Amino acid sequence: MDSKGATKLGRDDLRRICQEARAKEKLRDKASGAITDRLIGMGEFKDAETVYVYVNLPTEVETRNLIKGILKTKKVAVPYTKDDVIRLFRLKGLDELEPGVHNVLEPKKNLRTKEREMKVEDIDLFIMPGVAFDERGNRLGFGRGYHDRMLKKARADAVKIGLAYECQMVEEIPATPTDIPVDYVITEKKTVKC
After folding, report:
1. What is the CATH number of the domain that holds 162?
2. 145-158, pLDDT tens digit by residue?
3. Is residue 148 a part of any domain in this protein?
4. Domain that holds residue 148
5. How far apart are CA 141 and CA 148, in angstroms?
6. Is the pLDDT of residue 17 over 80?
7. What is the arithmetic mean of pLDDT over 43-61?
8. I want to staple 140 with a disulfide (CB 3.0 to 4.6 A). Which of 26, 71, 132, 166 is the partner?
9. How would you label 38-66 residue by residue, b for 16+ Cβ within 10 Å and e otherwise?
């Protein structure tokens, strides 16, 4: 069964199926480029002054080239975890990153100063990862709840955009009361307003 047929499955089964589908994605670079093009063409992206961007894992939609481009015109916040909480770091270049928790690239420890710290309330646009998404904006991550806890503090007018390969789109994700949906999901084939 592929991710499209995964309608009445629980969160763990959806997570497993979509992670497998994402890992098998053969045209990752091409799809990531198409997703990035869709994103940077959006008015919400153009209007944002401060952008939160995840730094991708190998099978996720690629964001490092996107970050390089954003740094030329906007403030960029990237995440790192401390005490099971996402903290935001004002990134000035990709050379400021090193492998951290769960082998995700994070800001180098010696750079994590008060001056480089950012607040969730400062973010105009959140570019979100996910293992799976549905067209209502429900997002399934790795199950740790880091992003949902962070997004609870976001401004009401901040826009949340999930990036995913088409194979990560499912008919329905069973949402929980703590889940924070995204406003848009962008795949290589479409932009979904949720």
Report:
1. 3.40.50.10420
2. 789 999 999 999 99
3. yes
4. 3-189
5. 9
6. yes
7. 96
8. 132
9. bbeebeebeebebbbbbbbbebbbbbeeb
Burial class from Cβ neighbours inside 10 Å (0-12, 13-18, 19+) for residue 193 reads exposed
| 64-71 helix and 28-40 helix, angle to the nearest 10 degrees | 30
In angstroms, the Cα distances linking 151 to 84, 90, 138 are 14, 17, 13
Q: How many domains does the chain have?
A: 1
Class of residue 127 by CB neighbours under 10 A (exposed 0-12, middle 13-18, buried 19+): buried
The gap between the terminal CA atoms of the chain, to the nearest Å, is 25
Token pair for 16: 């497993």
194 within domain boundaries = no
Cα–Cα distance for residue pair 11/13, rounded to 1 Å: 6
The whole-angstrom separation of Cα 28 and Cα 37 is 14
- pLDDT at residue 186 greater than cutoff 90: yes
Q: Please give the backbone phi and psi of residue 31, each rounded to the nearest 5 degrees, phi first.
A: -65, -45
Residue 180, token pair as written in the block: 């924070």
Single pTM value for the model? 0.91
Q: Is the pLDDT of residue 102 over 90?
A: no
